[in-house]
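Anyone up for a design puzzle?
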């Protein structure tokens, strides 16, 4: 509860700070006519971003916003090239930290992000967020939501198989059997979408690795630990055990992220291991669905179980946009509305 309260307090403070920002700074001359803004966003943010744009249009009727949604893989491959060519959007999804071509570190290195260090939201951002939004002391992304990786269950489907969210590893495997006995799969898995392949493992290593070794990454950099001899191996073995036990649909390598949502929405799958933003996507696909998100257990002691969490959705600004004021308005209105949207989704 303390950790949840801290994150909610952080979300509120950042949202309030962000909403005071759009009128600040040297934005240049006012436009002579209606402004056209373009946004490129991850498909997983569709329902939340649609809410952002609707609210922005209500407050700014003379500015029209067009959003183009893309799968994460396409976005990561295409966005840097578009910006280099001068054809990039005004506002776009940027991944916190590093690790792909559309991450904060990679994009800033190529001078493709507006420096937001002097914006007021940055004054209240906790120091723990800075490593994934900052490069060389400058802030280049607005963190919009915090997210966890866990198991999202349809409570209707759980009731249909006579089950409950598992609290231990043994209960998880038993629930896989129970779902199969009722003609369902417990967890829809869409590994045809590349970024999905990491999620089950990340959900497991929060318990198998980081619960006992929170400084594992630092220790590995210092040569005190190695990946190959760590309990990442335990998590990977458990992932394989889940597959062998029939916890997943039969063709995960031919199943996309979107198809997993359809499996849950239609009751063919009881749940899915996903990031928290999937809650709003599922609610949009099946408004009558009641959802519950829990940590994925990896041991038979419930007190061991941890859920990984970090900055999730983040947005950056094209440094060459001719509509800086309006583009910042979209970014910071998104910070407020998408946080509200995420909180409502998590409570469903």
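Challenge accepted. My sequence:
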């Amino acid at each position: 509860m303390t950790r949840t309260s801290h994150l909610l307090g952080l979300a509120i403070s950042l949202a309030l700070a962000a909403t005071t920002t759009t009128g600040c700074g040297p934005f240049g001359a006012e436009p002579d006519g209606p402004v056209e803004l373009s946004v490129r966003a991850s498909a997983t943010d569709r329902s939340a971003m649609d809410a952002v744009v609707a609210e922005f249009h209500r407050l700014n009727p003379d500015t029209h916003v067009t959003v183009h949604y893309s799968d994460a893989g396409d976005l990561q491959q295409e966005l840097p090239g578009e910006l280099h060519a001068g054809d990039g959007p005004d506002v776009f999804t940027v991944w916190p930290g590093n690790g792909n071509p559309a991450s904060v570190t990679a994009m800033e290195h190529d001078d493709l992000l507006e420096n937001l260090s002097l914006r007021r939201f940055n004054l209240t951002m906790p120091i723990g967020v800075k490593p994934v939004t900052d490069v060389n002391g400058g802030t280049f992304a607005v963190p919009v939501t915090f997210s966890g990786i866990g198991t999202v269950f349809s409570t209707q489907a759980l009731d249909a198989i006579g089950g409950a969210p598992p609290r231990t590893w043994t209960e998880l495997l038993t629930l896989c059997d129970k779902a199969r006995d009722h003609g369902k799969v417990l967890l829809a898995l869409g590994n045809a979408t590349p970024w999905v392949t990491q999620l089950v493992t990340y959900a497991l290593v929060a318990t198998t690795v980081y619960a006992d070794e929170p400084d594992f990454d630092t220790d590995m950099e210092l040569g005190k630990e190695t990946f190959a001899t760590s309990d990442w191996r335990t998590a990977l073995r458990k992932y394989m055990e889940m597959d062998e036990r029939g916890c997943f649909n039969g063709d995960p390598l031919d199943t996309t992220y979107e198809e997993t949502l359809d499996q849950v929405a239609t009751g063919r799958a009881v749940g899915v291991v996903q990031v928290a933003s999937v809650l709003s996507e599922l609610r949009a696909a099946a408004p009558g669905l009641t959802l519950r998100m829990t940590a994925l257990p990896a041991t038979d002691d419930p007190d061991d179980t941890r859920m990984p969490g970090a900055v999730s959705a983040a947005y950056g600004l094209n440094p060459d946009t001719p509509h800086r004021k309006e583009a910042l308005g979209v970014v910071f209105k998104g910070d407020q509305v998408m946080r509200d949207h995420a909180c409502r989704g998590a409570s469903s």
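A detail worth pointing out: The CA atoms of residues 176 and 247 lie 5 Å apart.
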